[in-house]
Each structure stands twice: as C-alpha cells, then as structure tokens.
Amino acid sequence: MSETTRYASLRNKIDNEVLNFVRLQQDLAERRLVWESRPSYLEFSFNTACNLRCVMCHQSENPPVVKAPEGRGEALLAWFGEHGTVWTPSATSEPLANDPAKLLAFCEQHHLFLELITNVMLLKPEVIDKLLPRIQRLTLSIDSHEREVIERVRRPVKYDVLVQHARYALARCNEASVATNVHIVLMMDNVRVLGDFIDWAAELGARDVTLLDMLDNTPQAAQMSVWRNLPAETVHEHIRRMIERARVRGLNLTLEIPAPLGGRYDHQPNIPRAHSAAVIEKLHDVNARAHAGFCPMVSNYLKVEPDGTAYPCCRAPRELILGNVWKDGIDAVWNGAPMQELRKRMFSGDLPKPCVGCYVVEAPKWDAEARGFTKRAPKPTS
Fold first, then answer.
1. Per-residue pLDDT reduced to its tens digit, 211-261
2. Residues paired with 118 in a beta bridge
C-alpha cells in the first residue's frame, strides 16, 4: 500500500470513528432501542488459551481451549474495523498466547489500537517493542509484590521474569507516552499489604494502579474473599493505607470496589500520545458523565467469546448474554431483543441485578456529581 493510499484509508477511518460517535449521541438523545451507532470498543480473542492458572480465575479449573471458527474472527474484526477504535484481544485469557505479529497485522490493516491486558510472562522486550506503536493502554495483571504469594496465586509464574518484563515494558511505555495500568485483585493473600504494593509498583515504574474486586467465579472464591472473611472496617483500613501510599508516591489509583471507598484518585497527569484512540476515549469519558446512569460499556462496547457468545461488558455475566454472533449475525446481536431490552432498562434506570453497584456504572455518576472532576474520597485516617 502506497503512502497516499494509506493516508486516504486512515482519513476515511477517522471520519467513520467520529461519525459513529455522533450517531451515538443521536441514539442516546432520542432514547432509541435500535441503534445506528456501533461499538467503539471490541473485546475478542481468537482463542481462550492462557499460560497461567491463577487461583482467582476460572482458568484455574483447566477448561478446554476454545477457538473461533476459521474465518469468523477475521470477519468480526473487518466489521469492527469499519467504525471501531480499540480492540482488546482477550477472552479471560492471555492475549499474547496469540501470535503478536498477527495482532499487529490486524491493527495495521484496520487502523485499530490495542487495549493489551497481560499477565506479563509472555511480554518479552521484543514483543513490547513490536506492538508499542499500536498500544492504546498496557495493563499488567500482577496481584502481589511478594514472591511467595504471586508464585502461588498465579501458577506457574516466575517472579524474576515477571519483574524484568514489567520493568522494561513500563519504561518503554512511559518514554512513548503510552498509558499503563497495574492491576491487583483484592483477596485475603494481599489485603494486609496493599500499601506496600503501591510502593513496589512505584519503584517498578507504574503510574496507575487499579484495585479490582474479586469475582465469585472459582471454587476458591469464598475462602479468598476479604468481604466474607474480614470485617468491612478492617478491609477499609487496609485500603485507606493504600490510598495514602498512592498519595505519597504520586500514583494514580482506581478502586473498583463497593462504596464508600470506590473511585478514582488522581495524583499525576497521564497525558497520552495524540492519536484517534486517545481522542475517542476522551469523547466517551465526557459522554459517560453526560449520560451518567447509562452504562458506558452498554453504549460503546461489545465482548465476543471465541464460541460467538456476546456480552455488553467486560465482566460478561451470564444474565446479560446478547446472543451468538456466529449463529445470529453481528448486527442482529448488536440490535437484537436482549440488547434492546437492556437499553430500555438503562434509559429507565431499572438496572439488571449484575449492573447494580458496578463500578463502571457508578464512576460516571461520581464524576458528574463532582461537575466533571475526579471523585475524591475522604482523607484516610491514620
């Protein structure tokens, strides 16, 4: 492809991205149930393969690897590539279990950017260097800074390799102004040292850390849950220490946990490099505040499993299955009866049970109440 042809293709793609956002505004303003807009974000992997068996993940049960039918994934990406912006190549799996060169080729072909969520072990220096131009955000799922803990809960991770890969990747992203995040799932194994994790992450080169509430999707969930095994105030005390350490170290902290401490705590600017994905993300952030209460994922996100099962959000509760894109067709799922019913309930405020209290729904409300400023929690007690 010549530079002239490539430029014309990119210009047409950016036009489509912006037009898609304009159509979303019309869909929301007119409270439509059948939408003209299409998702800006797609979560899809060609397979469910993962190199780790983390105890807080259903992969710990060694499920069989599911692969998308030949040609179907390519067709889905071609459809998404007409209007979409950011691709998350995941299916509760490790995205780098796919061929990185193949991921990059699809991104180049369809002018897409990657939301790369990885367990770090396959994120070799040569891989991050190759993918870096197409990464919108790099998220490292780590869960502990303690060797004994991480090697136990993220089997068969190698601590020294993880640290080496993570340090290099964070440094390269920081140099290139690529947004990064370090994820830690809240559980009994790490709740008492959350503040220490912040210090460790800062030394590693992290700028943003997210604390995730553990999903109840494994047999071990009950014994690992902090909410089931500790008084709420004890959990809150440890989290307040985490908040304070983030303030001292200047790290941005997101707490995807129930009230009263859930929220976003900004302590440093994280200005991304300029490209269409950064602009579209900002537009959707503003849109989420303007339509607080209507889940932003329902408005702009589609998750498709390799078997074709589709969901309106990344958490993918079974109660919110939209249909099967391989059997029903992509557009039929995006505007099918389950999605229309979900939109209707979002407009009316009658949220389905899995959505009640979800951080993705609640965070824009907090931001809107603060007139567009990030929510600040009460000052942590000593």
1. 999 988 788 889 999 999 999 999 999 999 999 999 999 999 999 987 788
2. 140
Whether the predicted pLDDT of 10 surpasses 90: no
- Global pTM reads 0.92
Give the burial class of 337: count Cβ atoms within 10 A of its Cβ; 0-12 exposed, 13-18 middle, 19 or more buried. exposed
Rg (CA), the chain: 20
- Residue-level pLDDT at 147: 97
Contact between residue 93 and residue 51 where contact means Cβ atoms under 8 Å apart? no
Asked if the peptide bond before residue 156 counts as cis, ω within 30 degrees of 0, the response is yes
β-strand pairing of 135-141 with 179-186: parallel
Q: How far apart are CA 374 and CA 78, in angstroms?
A: 36
Residue 127's CB: how many other CB atoms inside 10 A?
19
Closest CA to 114 of 89, 151, 147: 89
Q: Give the tens place of pLDDT for each residue, 314-367.
A: 988 899 999 999 999 999 999 999 999 999 999 999 999 999 988 899 888 877
Tell me the pairing of strands 252-256 and 263-265.
antiparallel
CB-CB contact of 41 with 88 (8 Å): yes
